[in-house]
Amino acid sequence: MEIRIFSPPRRGVAALVAIAVCAAVGCGEPARREDSLKLGGYSVVREVFHEGIIPAFKKRWRERTGREPVFGESYSSSGAQARSIASGFDADVAALSHPGDMEMLVKAGKVASTWRNGPNQGILTHSLVVIGHREGNPRGIKDWSDLAKPGVAVLYPDPKTSGGARWNVNAIHGAALLKAGADGPARDLMEKIQANVVNMDPSGRRSLANFGRSGDVDAVVTYENELLLRAREGEPIPYVVPPATLLIESPFAIVGPSVDKHGNRELVEAFVEFLSSAEAQAIFVEYGFRPLDSSTEDLPGRPEPAEVFTIDDLGGWGKVADELYSSHGLWTAIAARVVTSRGR
Predict the structure, then answer these.
(1) Are 145 and 131 in contact (CB under 8 A)?
(2) What is the pTM of this model?
(3) Residues with Cβ within 8 Å of residue 300, at least 6 apart in sequence
(4) Is 89 exposed, middle or buried (0-12, 13-18, 19+ CB in 10 A)?
(5) Contact 76/36 with Cβ under 8 angstroms?
(6) What does the alpha-carbon distance between residue 275 and residue 175 come to, in Å, rounded to a whole number?
(7) pLDDT tens digits for 41-64?
(8) CB under 8 Å to 244, separation ≥6 — which residues?
(9) CB 130 within 8 A of CB 230
(10) pLDDT digits (tens, 9 = 90+) for 104-116
(11) N or C: where does the chain have the smaller number of CB atoms within 10 Å of the terminal CB?
(12) Are residues 91 and 258 in contact, defined by beta-carbon separation less than 8 angstroms?
């Protein structure tokens, strides 16, 4: 009897392998275009979205439609992410550090000017600007003024690239300004702290990582949720909440042209609605954020500030950005003077 061995073409081999894999593990129908969503987020929300929010929403969507949604996720510093979306990265939803970066997308025609409409005014998460310190707090750091003392080594990221850095600087400037009622003391405090900043990384996440690796830095200015995430992951950094600090209000919005291109508006709108739900907000709290609804706030073990102020108390993002970070801004001038003095 003659035995013939059939050798299928390369394309046929791939098909047979795919059939075998599906038989072994099970393959559903390919994801429909309208069941796919791209998220463009700033680095701080990576874990809460990937591990908590997206799995919870997928379960909801399956229960509602019987279909499996597919998520594409991109995370980087807030300014870099905003510039990427403005330049053509077709994220369907943008989750950024601060409204100034979202306004960049409004000007680029990517986000509607009405993105603040809604029950939470376009805000996704709350947190506080705090100070991480060494175990035992050998420098006795309790307030912003302690970061200005001679010999104290400080880390915070670069406001030119990091949304987190702008929250940090705004907190320092705002606390001093509201306390003194004049710009002089605030300028003096900012200058002394900036002189103690040993390095400005491109993102808050990078600064925190460098603080964890370094034994020579005394303090890191960062988001409270970042430090609580470290503790959740078994790498705690102790921290203090200054007596007066800034409420971090980070926004999200639909990127309209991308949604129109992808034809997934039902999925995107359901996801955006879910983000403000009690279930999603409880997940954000698990990952160290503070609830949007302060009446439901129950955060045992977290230190509380005596005073919390907002960016609106400082005149709003437009005013703060011009006064601090423009070419003639206060922080811009201080940073330039510190760099010059170090080069001498």
Answers:
(1) no
(2) 0.86
(3) none
(4) middle
(5) no
(6) 31
(7) 999 999 999 999 999 999 999 999
(8) 174, 175, 178, 179, 305, 306, 307, 308, 309
(9) no
(10) 999 999 999 999 9
(11) N
(12) yes
